Amino acid sequence: MTRSDFMNRLRAGLSGLPAATINDLAADYEAHFEDGLAAGRSEAEVSAALGDPDRLARELRAEAGMRRWETEKNPSAAAAAVFAVLGLGAIDILILLPILMGVLGALFGVLVAVIATFVAGGFVFAVGPFVAPPGGPFAALLAGLGLMAGATAVGALLTIVTIWLVNGIVWFARLHYRLLKPAIEPQAQGRA
Fold first, then answer.
1. Which pLDDT band, with edges at 50, 70 and 90, does 126 fall under?
2. Residue in 87, 88, 55, 68 with CA at minimum distance from that of residue 18
3. Max Cα distance, the chain (Å)
4. What is the pLDDT of residues 74-95, one digit of tens each?
5. Are 146 and 135 a contacting pair, CB within 8 Å?
6. What is the pLDDT of residues 143-168, one digit of tens each?
7. Domain ranges (residues) in the chain
């Protein structure tokens, strides 16, 4: 594979990342080609030593997503990290995606229940004293506050569980990459 083919496939695989990140990563691999050519190797030998640009782009996207999650800790960064990890391998998608979708579905269901409970608590708090509930208006106020406080507590726990889940996925991706790296690098060193 020629240098331009390798770089075009790498850039295509990195699309969606910030332009500065793509340019930095591309510059690193351009430097690999420069060093290889200076050492007397052909473009095909250097590209073979670097490996498959599509796989390399998936690994670089996963690493960028994990770094973004570690610095930003917001839903967008979490989604980027999860999807970058899922992009690492088809087998992982077949195993991890059904489990992850079940867990995310359960978390979403709990989120909906938390929101509904909070709204119901607000309704009981606001309307309860005016409709003569059992126990009197003070009981309605306390019941409304109790529902809202309970929903807030469960929402806080849900946030913690979601952060743990994203951190677990990032840990899995790092483990996955560490396990694959030794298998990939000897091939690259043997060709170099």
1. very high
2. 68
3. 90
4. 777 677 666 666 666 555 666 6
5. no
6. 999 999 999 999 999 999 998 888 88
7. 72-182
User: Looking at residues 15-32, what average pLDDT do you find?
Assistant: 84
pLDDT score at 85: 63
CB atoms within 10 A of CB 181: 11
| CB-based burial label for 68 (10 Å; 0-12, 13-18, 19+) | buried
Nearest to 43 by CA among 56, 24, 30, 55: 30
The token duo for 181 is 């790296």
Is 32 within 8 Å of 46 (Cβ atoms)?
Answer: yes
Q: Tell me the DSSP string of 132-164.
A: --TT-HHHHHHHHHHHHHHHHHHHHHHHHHHHH
CA angle 11/15/17 to nearest 5° reads 115
Least Cα distance to 52 among 88, 81, 16 occurs for 88
d(CA 36, CA 41): 5
CA distance 46 to 30: 10
